[in-house]
Structure to design on (182 residues):
């Protein structure tokens, strides 16, 4: 009987120990996310972006780099998915031409972000950072095509451009800078 109680006590202690260790690992990972986000240009966006993905708390710096690039790939693909409907709603030649250029810019960006993902996965962080920058510039070029010539307008994917160039790219660059500095 005493032996049976000892096993129960050991089992309870083991469960508590595992729970305690997993909380400490999660807190350490959360601290890494906080440290990354404190160095980014938009702490609030960074915390929300990583907070929206449950994997964030279990990843190291390399994993956060990969995850942040993956977020950009998803954002670029989401924007690209809008173009077929946008093209249906634009009837003028200038608008159609602008949408075609803008769609091409996003396709180029998506290609660069995928290449950055592969480079980061291979721990070629400087190359990944350059590719992310190239992709961000391609996305920004979409905005430019709407500013040249008349009529000057905002692109119909302005929110996507903002999200990618001002938010996600900055988070990626923060993580990659930390990785390069390692």
């Amino acid at each position: 009987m005493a032996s049976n109680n000892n096993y129960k006590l050991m089992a309870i202690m083991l469960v508590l120990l595992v729970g305690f260790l997993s909380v400490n690992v999660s807190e350490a990972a959360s601290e890494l996310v906080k440290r990354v986000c404190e160095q980014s240009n938009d702490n609030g966006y960074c915390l929300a972006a990583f907070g929206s993905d449950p994997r964030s708390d279990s990843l190291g710096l390399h994993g956060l780099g990969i995850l942040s690039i993956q977020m950009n790939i998803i954002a670029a693909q989401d924007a690209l998915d809008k173009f077929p409907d946008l093209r249906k709603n634009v009837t003028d030649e200038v608008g159609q031409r602008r949408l075609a250029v803008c769609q091409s810019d996003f396709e180029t960006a998506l290609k660069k972000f995928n290449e950055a993902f592969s480079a980061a996965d291979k721990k070629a962080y400087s190359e990944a950072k350059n590719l992310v920058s190239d992709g961000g510039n391609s996305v920004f070029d979409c905005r430019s095509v709407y500013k040249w010539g008349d009529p000057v307008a905002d692109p119909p994917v302005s929110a996507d451009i903002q999200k990618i160039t001002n938010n996600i790219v900055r988070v990626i660059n923060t993580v990659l800078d930390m990785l390069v500095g390692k």
